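User: Working on a comparison across species. This one is Probable transcriptional regulatory protein PAECIP111802_01216 from Paenibacillus allorhizosphaerae. Can you predict its structure so I can line it up against the others?
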Amino acid sequence: MGRKWNNIKEKKASKDANTSRVFAKFGIEIYVAAKKGEPDPESNQALKFLLERAKTYNVPKAIIDRAIEKARGNSEESYSELRYEGFGPSGSMIIVDTLTNNVNRTVADVRSAFNKNGGSVGVNGSVSYMFSPTAVIGVEEKTSDEILELLMEADVYVRDVTEEDDSIIIYAEPDQFHAVQTVLKQAGITEFTVAELTMLAQNYVTLSPEELTKFEKLIDTLEDLEDVQRVYHNVDFLE
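Assistant: Here's the predicted structure for Probable transcriptional regulatory protein PAECIP111802_01216 from Paenibacillus allorhizosphaerae:
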């Protein structure tokens, strides 16, 4: 599968732990999903997925409830989904997904983050072709063989099931996300260490210590922008 998912999340967790920044971004994303469809997760699959993901980041219930109630109300606040693709040191590749209520601000902020940290913004498609949309689900119960058997018996096919540290990580096509979770829940598994729809690089690169320092500063700057929801890249932080 290439790079271990737990290594990716460990890097993010060290930055996101005990901060309100990640919670605020979840609030916006949940509001947008609830506003687009029904504010009921049972009839809105996008919202249902987000709530599952929010649990793995320990997003407070009050933030979730407030975002859904805002969508139920008469709020006219609207957000645009924009994706940027660019390059960091030594041709490293970066994808930036944003939700914004001010497109001009977001464009300027993202370009500034790249330009001031040794990177450059590319055109649409210049980077994304090297990434694969992937559903990633992690559990701490059962073994990889047991999980694989459960999925096969239910005719749910996945890319890979691996043991990573203390978790079993399942990699699947994005459209199999809910099918995988349904099988696991029917088997009595209700807690997930990971529940993500992400972009995984097909190949990862290793940077020199000096380049890695520059790259980390670029990623941190992007992730700190209020309109940026997620940042994907192809650099190994941990070997």
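For your comparison, note: The mean pLDDT is 89.

User: Helpful, thanks.
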